[in-house]
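Sequence in, structure out.
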Amino acid sequence: MSYGLTPYDKKHYRDSKRRRRQAAKAEKIGRILPFSTARRHLVIITIVAVLVVGAAVGGYFAYRAFTDMTESDSVQQNNQEKSGELLRVVNSSNPLPDDYQPELKSLGNFKVNTLAVDNLKNFCNKARESGLNINLVSAYISFEEQEMLYNEKLTEFVTNPEYTEVRAQAAVQKIVPKGGCSEAQTGLLVGFEISDEKTRAFIERECIYFGFIQRYPKDKEDVTKMSENKMLYRYVGVENAGKMRSFNMSLEEYSEYVAIQNAESVDVQTE
């Protein structure tokens, strides 16, 4: 009995029944049925979009990593340059280069190295809070000014019959270095007015907390080759100043110590 179905209807019914059986079987075994063309295109577009986004994100992070590394190297190099300047020893055996010119900033009537100026201001402010006034009497000096001071002092000694010219030169260089041989030319060496014992004690005690050390103390004359000068203080940075006091080292001794430490560190890294 055909129930009025045409041959076409019967074929369509059989095809539909077969597809349902295939779908049921595919669902049972976890098989994915073929996508339609539209769905296939959508999947391809989605995959391509994910790959593009992934590549963009990966490229961004790679760029950031490279930038951070470059910035880190730049900061490290800058810190090394600052450290080298702060621990620079200047004397007749280690004169400044002919083209040396520090970065300076005005502080009242004086010029001071930009590395030291902020801490110097803070040091003076701390003194005022303690009821004291710290006044500068010297700071940056040019090559020409330093050479003039040296020649004036040399003339004074040469006119003294107790000194030969050679002895006069040796004596003067312990007090006033030649041009190019003075740390005053770095702008990191400053002279404080020591008006009374209370001011002297404050400067001597508190200086390291602002990165300064007494440059030419009495007990280091054999190392610095300079006569004691209670007025002259050198900016070396807070960390360096603290260590130098703890180790009881002059700038000459400490800079040599740091150089040895750095050399040993490099040797360990290359092993």
